[in-house]
Task: structure prediction
Amino acid sequence: TLFKVCLVHFMWEPFHLTGTEEGLQAVDRLVRTYKHSCSWFLGPFYSLVRLFHPDYVKPLLLASASITVKDELFYGFLRPWLGQSILLSNGEEWSRRRRLLTPAFHFDILRNYIKIFNHSSDVMHAKWRRLVANGESCLDMFSQISMLTLDSLLKCTFSYNSNCQENSSEYIAAILELSNLIIDRRGRILHHWDWWYWRTPEGRRFKRACDIVHGYLVERFMGAKYEEEKKKKVVDFIDLLLLSKDEEGQGLSDEDVKAEADTFMFAGHDTTASGISWVLYNLSQNQDYQDRCRAEVNDLLQDRQTEDIEWDDLNNLPFTTMCIKESLRLHSPVSAVTRRYTEDMNVPGGRVIPKGSICLLSIYGIHHNPEVWPDPDVYNPMRFDPENSKGRSSHAFIPFSSGPRNCIGQKFAMAEMRVVVALTLRRFRLTSGPEKVRRLPQVVLGAEGGLQLQLETLDPPQE
Result:
């Protein structure tokens, strides 16, 4: 079956092209030119269909998990790091893991994590106050907030208080190296073959970084968890994994638990840190929106004896939530997801994607498509006002993907983002840093040289 699309492109180094600010601008031009999709040949080795319109990605994302496969070209490089986890598994194995893990993200479980988000924010803000008082008021949001999300996840996953926000982290350095090495490997065709890659200096560095991450999460913190088991009161993620059983009474093996813990730490740490950082950046560029969010938070917390955001408060921050969503549209932490299908897939216009084709579903492309979002490069939270959202495609906004294989941790991420953003705006005013920001799309969306913002400490509102 022939898939008829706008044009066929030839490109030898796609990942180097798209891994820069200029690469994202090239995607903008592609979307404006072809509107919904096009086919690509990646040298003589791979071909893929790139889609960037909600009407085209909807049938693909909503397809049954039984015919949806995570392709090895984009996801296979993560396997030595994350194992056969829910992110990388397929078919019945994926379905079983999804059933086992879903209870770990129930509202009743997430409610227990809100105190952790508050406490990690308090630690970060106390550090910021010290730095500002000492004349260090311009900080890299990525490095600061990465430590916060790591701190929160270690507590939520292992009930472990790492104090990582105050001390340097070998784990963070290893995560960054793994992310950079994955991007580098994607851009080198010869490195796609394991037999070659593991003999290269980059492959040996990847293995060393994997050893650090696995040792850090499993040996050290699993041990700490068991030592503190009788002392802690909150059920953590590892507890839930160890207790989960399927319909036949079978649970996860030790290797399964390790893979899911690694995946939870990876997926919940970098992505959420990117999301929070870009929200603060966008509000630093739009002081009127920042002031409105701050007023909303101050009104919510007035007459309180503490500044803690509570679970029931999350739905009482509508404008702040709109600002977060608009930032997730404009600066999505994950720029694309890829899929293969074991059946031919029908998309609009009578077109058919042959089974086995790699489909790159461009979240960035959809979120910046002028056919879907007028003035797509403008930060405008009012797009997410309920009145303005009427009639919009359900797949016009998909920062957490969609369908059966959507992000299982999206409610966790949104809860943490709202808590951290709300408390940050209550305590600090953020303005632009000294350097022009250039986006850096890697495993998650960052900025070249970091994302520098200027901080001004605010006094608590007068009651």
